[in-house]
Amino acid sequence: MRLDADLAVVVTGGASGLGGATARAFAASGAKVAIFDRNRALGESTADEIGGLFVETDVLSEESVEAAFATARASHGQERVLVNCAGGGNAIKTVSRDKASGAMKRFPTDKFSSVLMLNTVGTFRCITHAAAGMAVLDPVDGERGVIVMTASAAAQDGQIGQAAYAASKAAIVGMTLPIARDLSSEGIRVNSIMPGIFDTPLMGAAPAEVKAALASTVPFPKRLGAPEEYASLVLEMVRNRYFNGETVRLDGAIRMPPR
C-alpha cells in the first residue's frame, strides 16, 4: 500500500502511546489520519498536532464505532488502513488468599469478560466495519486495504495476574490468520504485532527504578521499546504487499518471567 496523501488511515487508541506514535508516523508520510479514542483532550491535541481528525469513540459500543467510521469517511473518504491500538487490562490472580482472614477470593468473571470485550471484541468490531468498507473500493496495486492488530508478548508469556489480558491478546494472535484468510478474496491484508515492554504514558507513571528494572530484563537492546519503533513496523506492514497473515514479536528478545 502506498503511503501518500490519497491514503486514509484510522488508528484506534490513537490519542497517545503506541497509537499516538502510529498516527504521527502516518501523518508524516502524508496520509489522512483519523484518531478514534475515548480521551477527548488527548485525542484532540494529537489530531491538532498532526493535522488529523479526532473522533470520540468507544470500541465497546457498536453504535459509537459505526458513527465514528461514518464521521471519518465523511471527512477523509473510505479508509484503506486500520490500526487497532485501543485496549487495556487488569491484574487479578485467578484465585487469591485474603491476607487477613485467609479466605479465598475468586477473579470476578465480569472483570475477566470486560478485558476480552475491550481488547478482543472491540478489535474485531472495528475490523468488521473497516473491512466492509474497504471491500467495495477499487484495488490499488492489486489490494484494497490493510489491517494491523495489536496483541502483546503476554499472549505467549502471560505473567501472574494476567489471565484476562493474556487471553485477550492470545485471541488476537489466534484470529490473525483466519481473518487474513477471510479477507484474502477481497484483497485486504491482516497482520498483528506483539509488543514487549514499551515506554508508553502508562509506563511513564512508574518510578524510575521500576522502569530500570524492567529494562534490565530485555536481552538487547537493554531498554524499553519506543512507540516510534512500533509505528515503524506498522508502516512496513502496510508498505510491504507480501506481508500477510503474520504475527510478529517486537520485544528486544524478551521472554516475560512469571512476575
Topology:
Elements lengths: L7 E5 L4 H12 L3 E6 L2 H11 L2 E4 L5 H15 L4 E4 L10 E3 L6 E3 L2 H26 L10 E6 L3 H4 L5 H22 L3 E8 L5 H4 L3 H9 L10 H13 L7 E4 L9
Parallel strand pairs: 1-2, 1-4, 2-3, 4-7, 7-8, 8-9
Antiparallel strand pairs: 5-6
Keywords:
seven-stranded parallel sheet; 9 strands; globular; two-stranded antiparallel ribbon; alpha/beta; 259 residues
Note down, in words, how this protein is organized:
This protein is of the alpha/beta class. It is 45% helix and 17% strand. The protein has 9 helices and 9 strands. A 7-stranded parallel β-sheet has the order 3-2-1-4-7-8-9, with helices on both faces. The chain has a two-stranded antiparallel ribbon with strand order 5-6. Helix 4 packs parallel to helix 6. The longest helix has 26 residues, at 109-134. The N and C termini lie far apart (40 Å). The model has no long low-confidence stretch (mean pLDDT 95).
